[in-house]
Write a structure and sequence with these properties.
- This protein is an alpha/beta fold.
- It has a single domain, classed as Alpha/Beta hydrolase fold, catalytic domain (Rossmann fold).
- It contains five helices and eight strands, in the order H-E-E-E-E-H-E-H-E-H-E-H-E.
- The strands form two sheets. Strands 4-3-6-5-7-8 form a six-stranded mixed beta sheet, with helices on both faces. It has a two-stranded antiparallel sheet with strand order 1-2.
- Helix 4 crosses helix 5.
- The longest helix has 25 residues.
- The radius of gyration is 17 Å and the shape is globular.
- The protein binds 2-acetamido-2-deoxy-beta-D-glucopyranose.
- 2-acetamido-2-deoxy-beta-D-glucopyranose binds next to loops.
Length: 189
């Protein structure tokens, strides 16, 4: 019975990856594909206006927009090298500004030893656009890797950086390391 169940599960996973790659193949253009409320990212350039980052610090627990192209600005916004860093990524139909992500954010902030970064890719992972959300994870990971590099350039050590993801956000945490040369950062699912 157990064997049978896991057999079925494997098949389902296989079918859904098949679907994604078929969709990818058919829409191989450089223009973002939009339908209903959905968008499928086709352009592989970061930063992207639909993937945004916000920093929170213990002294300034309100969001501060971060542009990863300017790592030097982090310090001006209150980022501290002596603190650890956490990247928090929401999942399907989620947003950085609602539960459960705000609980996770506030838990890290209350420790006082973390710079907290929230990743906002809500427009790219809206219900019911699950296939586009799956496809957009790659782009979200690519752009978040750029944020990670900015934090490193500002002086953070890789071992002081953690990625926390909820549902599809956890997959993005995993995919970020594909874009990095130094693979020793922590992932919390
Ligand atoms: C998706 O998110 C919206 C807005 O937060 C919510 O109203 C809706 O119930 C969610 N849909 C599903 C299927 O979870």
């Amino acid at each position: 019975m157990c064997v049978l169940k896991s057999g079925i599960l494997l098949v389902l996973v296989f079918v859904s990856t098949e679907l994604v790659s078929e969709v990818d193949g058919d829409l191989a253009s450089m223009v973002d594909f939009r339908y209903f409320r959905c968008v499928m990212k086709r352009e592989w350039k970061c930063p992207d206006s639909e993937i945004n980052f916000f920093m929170y610090t213990p002294e300034h627990p309100h969001k501060h927009f971060v542009d990863p192209r300017y790592p030097k600005l982090l310090r001006d916004f209150g980022w501290k090298k002596t603190r650890k860093n956490v990247l928090i990524i929401h999942g399907f139909n989620g947003t950085y500004s609602k539960t459960p992500m705000t609980y996770i954010r506030d838990a890290y902030l209350s420790r006082k030893d973390y710079n907290v970064f929230m990743v906002d890719w809500s427009v790219l992972t809206r219900f019911p656009c699950y296939l586009s959300a799956l496809s957009n994870m790659k782009k979200a990971a690519q752009c978040t890797a750029q944020l990670y590099s900015a934090i490193t350039q500002a002086g953070a050590l890789a071992k002081m950086t953690t990625c926390v993801g909820h549902s599809l956000g956890a997959h993005i945490c995993g995919m970020i390391s594909n874009h990095l040369t130094e693979k020793q950062y922590k992932i919390v699912v």
